[in-house]
Amino acid sequence: MFDMLFAGFGSVMTLQIIMLIAAGVALGLVFGSIPGLTATMAVAICLPITYGMDPIAGMSLLMGLYIGGVSGGLIPAILLKLPGTPSSIATTFDGYPMAQNGEAGKAFNYAIVSSFLGGLLSIIVLIMIAPPLGRVALQFGPFEFFAIVIFSLTLIASLSGDSLPKGIMAGLLGISFAMVGAAPIDAFPRFTYGFTDMNAGFNLLPVLIGLFALSEIFISAEKKVKKGLNAKLSKVNYKVSIKEYVAQGWNFLRSSLIGLGIGILPGIGGGTSNIISYVAAKSSSKKPEEFGKGNPAGVVASEASNNAAVGGALVPLISLGIPGDTVTAMLLGGLVLHGLQPGPLLMQNSGDVVYGIFAALLIANVFMILFLFMGMKGFIRLLSIPQHILYPIILALCVVGAFGVNNRLFDVGALLFFGVLGYLMIKFGFPLTPLVLGFILGPLLETNLRRGLMLSQGDFMPFLTSPIAAAFLLVAAASVVFAIYSNHKKKKGTSVLNV
Amino acid sequence: MVAKYEDVFSGIFLLIVSVIMFFTAYSFEALTTSLVGPAFMPQIIAIVMAIFSVVIAVGGFRKSKVIPEEKNSPEQHKEELIVTEKRSYKPVLISLGLMIGYVILLPYIGFLIMTVIYIFLQMLILSHITHRKIWLFLLISIVTSATIYYLFRNVFYVMLPTGIIG
Predict the structure, then answer these.
(1) Which positions in chain A touch B157 (Cβ < 8 Å)?
(2) Does B133 fall in a domain?
(3) pLDDT for A18-71, tens place per residue?
(4) Domain that residue B159 falls in
(5) Given CA atoms A334, A338, A341, A344 in this order, what sign does their dihedral have?
(6) Which of A71, A257, A345, B23 gets the most CB atoms within 10 Å of its CB?
(7) Are residues B93 and B159 located together in one domain of the fold?
(8) Chain B residues inside the 8 Å CB shell of A393
(9) What residue in A sits closest to B137 (Cα-Cα)?
């Protein structure tokens, strides 16, 4: 394993790739820090840049963006009480009060260091468990894979958004959109309604960019913001003593493990993990009443867990080809663009790229802590760029990205369609993430179902009698029961996330 | 009004979609001799979708009787600090029209010119009247469009449409 990792470092230790990682982290931090711009958007508009690169260089850039995008959100969360990304919502709870008490520098220090360590821990876990998990997954046949996909689908439905039926509906819509075009196995064109352009179906990238970037532009068109964000930071005292760090040790470890675990589960990711870690830190604290008034433990919990979710979300992506959150869904699109096949075979066929990705993540994590400590003033100044200047430029880049996938305008049309769909879904209270997961998992589900039935000559029983498949289906059923139970409980007024 | 019945509307709409889906799938022919053809999954999904659209619509109908017209979430309250004008759907529709026009004209006029026009107009739509700096917007749109065009054509090899200046 270590020789593979050294080889990975060898392949990214070129001036070009190091520069790409650094640029990725810097741009990711900018996108993460400006509210309304997300890591997903950063990856979306940078994907077309990677078209001409070799896979390792391209994926290294995207890893830098991912790490930077998740980390940048802490800046406005602490200074302005505005989470730059959903991953830093819980950072505002205690980070902002700390800044109000004149401890902004201290809050930054805690947040940056826990981001770095949380990220590092999760990347190490990723490197340790993704390869063996991928090897195990190589033994899986269609029955097992079908069960894993069902399991992943029940998770997204059960843990996204406020309304269970709407989450499930969004997932079903995703599966339906993935059915447009040639059917798996026999390639019968479905739901094309006579348009030959539709035969190839919808490409993942326009779907993602439309849903997550375009919809934001429509939302911002609704209301006109008068002044740009105004953040000032005159002098920063970053000083935190070793003793104060050590005091956060257990909290840090628990939060990182929560982030890691939630990251591994498909479809949930950093947006949820930071809140759950915060609640866990608060409820296990001896002085829960101090939370919300500037307790550093709240900042550590939130920032350690959201960066730990990065490594976690990459585990199912690399070993199974199932994305853990929206950014990894985008990365999945990136892998496909570079002709790599996501799934258990990725490790076997393109091990060099996978270990290059691992090395790039470790390097990106170092750049992240360096940039945040050295360039804090610059990032704060960028917060004041108004959205009405950023969004039109982002749309133009989205169009380039969608066009560049296949050099055809149909994909740009699809981009607009999914942008409008995303906007309407937000307006009508449907969560977007389940749609993306459904879109990616739907074809896997159908392919494995039909392949399995061909293998068993129409017999459904092997789906239940294969031990691994049966176990996953059982867990899936349990998670559905749990989801219905907690949804029912929530309606009665006792919210699970009582923050 | 819409906010009150949003779940009823979306539920009914999705029910119609699932019915169309179900019957469209009847025309899918199985090209292999297998028990489960290309119509199987779409029909299963359509049935489940229909069930959940009814659940959403009925839930929404019940909710509309319980809660009063205006819901005042704390989130909306927070936004008032930086938002000066009321939410309005007109700029959303204008933006959509602008984007559609941009995409349709792209292959004929070319990326370079259309992008300048699009970015400039979109900035005008999104900005507040006190923030409309016409010359700055024009400068930004020209520089951005030219940079993207030359960078992507010459460095990243994405063949953006040239249109009339090619």
Answers:
(1) 51-52
(2) yes
(3) 999 999 999 999 988 887 788 888 888 888 788 778 899 999 999 999 999 999
(4) 82-165
(5) negative
(6) A71
(7) yes
(8) 119, 140, 144
(9) A389
